[in-house]
Amino acid sequence: MGNDYRPMWESLGLDLEAHDQLLNVLPPTYGDVYLKQENRPDKMEYFDFVFNEIHGLRIQELQEHKAKGGKVVGAYCVFVPEEIVRAAGGVLVGLCSGVEIGSAQVEKVLPKNICSLIKSFMGFKLARICPYFECCDLIVGETTCDGKKKAFEILNDYVPVHVLEIPQMRREKDRQFWFGELQDFLKTVEEYTGNKITPESLRRSIKEINAKRSVLLRLNELRKNDVLPISGKDSLLIEQIAMYDDVDRFTSQVNGLCEELETRVREGKGVNKPDSPRIILTGTPMAIPNWKVSHLIESSSAIIVAEEMCTGLRYFENLVSEEGESVDQMLKSIADRYIETNCACFTPNEGRTEELVRLAKEYKADGVINCSLIFCDPYMIEANRVEKTLKDHGIPLLRIETDYGQEDSGQLKTRIEAFLEMIKR
Amino acid sequence: MITAGIDVGSTTTKAVVVADGLWSGDALVPTGINNRASAEESLEKALAKAQFSSSQVDRIVTTGYGRANIPFADKQVTEITCHGRGAHSLVPGLRTVIDVGGQDSKVICLDSHGRVVDFVMNDKCAAGTGRFLEVMARALESDLEDMVVQARRGTGQVPISSTCTVFAESEVISHLASGRPKDEIIRGLFEAVVNRLEGMALRLNVQPEIAMTGGVALNAAVVDILSRVLGQAVQVPEKAQLVGAYGAALIAAEK
Questions:
Q1: Which residue from A51, A196, B56, B77 puts its CA 20 to 30 A from A290's CA?
Q2: Which of the residues A422, A423, A425 would you substitute to probe the B interface, choosing the one with the greatest number of B C-beta atoms within 10 Å?
């Protein structure tokens, strides 16, 4: 990113010195993790470009959108329906939270022993490093875990936060409650944007977001092939970019990539060796720029075939029904789709373990790696259910608990390699 | 066929030379800053004992945390696989290996062929490993051998609540300051080490025979407590620190 963006960053109120430090770290990391991969699809070029311009061009686009009176809404969770924000002419962006940042400042407001994701988003805000954050007119929080729920109260001191209460069970009364939450959210979005959501605008945005989900499903379908046309790391990057890129452009670029990948499958041009173990990654989200575990796995002779994570299948599985005439009918369809997300905040959450068994079969996986962020109680505890179910089905599992720091890379690599030696018979 | 296994651990580097399936020579040297130099030194010494020259070696497998830093290796294999392979060939009917080295601890389950079927390994924290005991020995102004001797003198023990090296060290210092006998503190420390291993073992389906390997296996008091806690005799192969290197040499001969 050139210096042309400095005036924009300055006007957003970023701490330019701290921001420079982040920008100095990111490109070399990206180079090591992404650009050194062999035999990459040509059409990854677009995603390299988008990542390179993560704090540049995309921010400029959001600023232009705002100059025309549009609103920007930030979120941290796949339970926040993009359809609603978009139907009111707003732009929803998934916010940065995949890197250790502003730790000292975070400890002014949060306890030390809390998950990296929460520390990271608070750090980005307090240290004024994330231009997306500074673009946001409204942040949508949720109650998926106690840590986030309470942290959003504190975040509200710095930026307006609307908290969505996420049900923790899926009984009829929970479904009704969730529908009510979305009705309230819709009203909030209408107030913030000053735009009324109409059946037409909601139907259109449902179709557009369905198109984005469909193209990600198309990409993932291709990863079921014996010849894998794309690495897990590249797939993860695309899934991360899905959360902040322009929806229509992203959809069309992923479609273009899928065409190239289909050709590669036909021609037998895979990124994997025939004996590379196929791994499914499951667990807590890996927000951009967190590629640590994927990189360790793929630099240890294995290849990732699917991410059963929020930065992955949970984000784009299941489409919203495009039926319905009224806003409420469509809102009901939206509520029905989102409540089926297999988040560990639900009890029980058998959908997730059943899905893992199904995915292992469909993607011909040799093993599953369950990766939880340290101090993420829901996922760390649910690892026990995952282990039990997979063991019952004879699917090898490795459990990893880690954070955004790099100091455990050596030990993680040993565990991952030993796991691969174990399953590579 | 002559093969060598080199285990570049966090504290020591071990080499074992195997000729036609037989353990023919070994060496153990401290791991220096330069992993490659330590690996070369251990290999030279092991070859000298086996009376072979380096040109006679067909294949070399490296293992341990420094395994990737040795350019003359033919292959790298993790210490988990190597300890499993090595211990299985030394202890008949072995199904479980508990390996505690300088900074890692692992519990490894094997099938009847010595292949790894499941394992757990400590996280980035080095609590309850060899380094933990070294730090405590210093706080007690003792050494590792003397700690075992003292631990066997008497019965009572001071509970050590934390296996965090830093916190446990301050616990030891405050117990010393309050006049608790050293042997009670040492038994408390050993119990803490075993507690941690027990927690790891319980996550797996631990079956007999059980063996302990790695530097901490030389601590007979820890092995006794571990046997009591697991309700099974824990065997310690001869040269327990070299088992990983031996396993690496055996794997080198396989392909």
A1: B77
A2: A422
